């Protein structure tokens, strides 16, 4: 099956927008008529059944939907069809409070796997590939999302799930795995395990990394590619929007292409909540255009990025979103300076003598915040030489200061002592409110 949907993915902008307008009108009307939550919200905003939507910019009359709305309506309050039409449920991990639930009709599942197939093909997957899915199987949308999308491409899927490093590597070698699906942090972990194992890289047939679910800086990507001998593509999505398949890298890797016939992206200012223009950095807001089970209007993703509508060198015309800087939740404010962990990661990975693993520890003393960055040394011998160690530490602090505009404290630790992650990395330890 050819999952590069050329007739859709290379449509001229005017035609994409015509499809979006028609589907936006449909979605607003559908939400108004099928969920109490949106009926109330749209009535209060004077939008009612969507007849007021004449052009795409009229979306501004629709109120935003937030994660709190999902929480307040947990578990099924945002659902737009009778339960008998629902065939699947997924949920976010919900580390804080109740998880966020997503439900799917048969048609939703079909469109979902189509969107993931698109992302996979854009990332280089073909029917000849053997792909190991090392996301945890379960309520998480990542594993089953990629699973069915990759099957649609015709690739052979190995539902490995996460954990048990030795077994992961054994499966890769024995089954001739050509592609790995994982979070970037788990891929990094596995790539280091390959380097450290008795089996050389030539025992593996790996050529692709289809990574997503957390930010992956270009520097981190390069490290994984070097260790594993793969081409890495990034893909993005979230439980509230159905999971992966919302956007993904093409071979050019100059922004992830949105599935614009199914999702309508906007960027808004984090300060004023007002819409921003092309190329401006702000919070991504997304409206689903075809979802039936749990449609979402103007969902505030909390992810910070920018959009471009310039056609891509790959031929695709769908909007591209830049790699996210991270979530507004993860942005640290230290002495009045905004810091995203991805900015720190980019600096650390590009420097010699230190590894790609780090932890950020935020503390407050006498009402003053400070940021400590723990980084692993590549070679423990350096710990023997105080002079060298101090020089390296200052070099990293200076580089960070020039990028962040903030004095940080760098602590160099023994190789392989910081925590490794099998899913999304948790690198921030905020001790300020303890
Ligand atoms: O992580 C869905 C997913 C699974 C996407 C597999 C891609 C691959 P959630 O667990 O609900 O869903 O987390 C969604 O993860 O708002 C972003 O902050 C972050 N995220 C997801 N993909 C990327 C990415 C899945 N490619 C949240 N780059 C989102 C950066 C990402 N952040």
Q: What do these coordinates show?
A:
With 434 residues, this protein is α/β, with parallel strands linked by helices. The protein folds into two domains: 11-252, ANL, N-terminal domain (Rossmann fold, 3-Layer(aba) Sandwich); 332-430, ANL, C-terminal domain (GMP Synthetase, Chain A, domain 3). The protein is 31% helix and 24% strand. It contains eleven helices and 21 strands. The chain has helices at 6-9, 13-34, 36-44, 67-72, 106-122, 141-153, 165-174, 184-196, 218-228, 341-349, 386-404; strands spanning 86-91, 101-105, 130-133, 156-158, 179-182, 208-212, 231-238, 243-248, 256-258, 263-268, 282-288, 299-305, 307-308, 320-321, 326-327, 332-334, 337-339, 354-365, 368-377, 409-413, 428-430. The strands form five sheets. The chain has a nine-stranded mixed beta sheet. Helix 2 crosses helix 3 (36-44), helix 8 runs parallel beside helix 9 (218-228) and helix 10 packs across helix 11. The longest helix has 22 residues, at 13-34. 44% of the residues are buried. The model has no long low-confidence stretch (mean pLDDT 96). 5'-O-[hydroxy(phenylacetyl)phosphoryl]adenosine binds at residues 92, 141-142, 212-215, 234-239, 243-244, 301, 303, 324, 327.
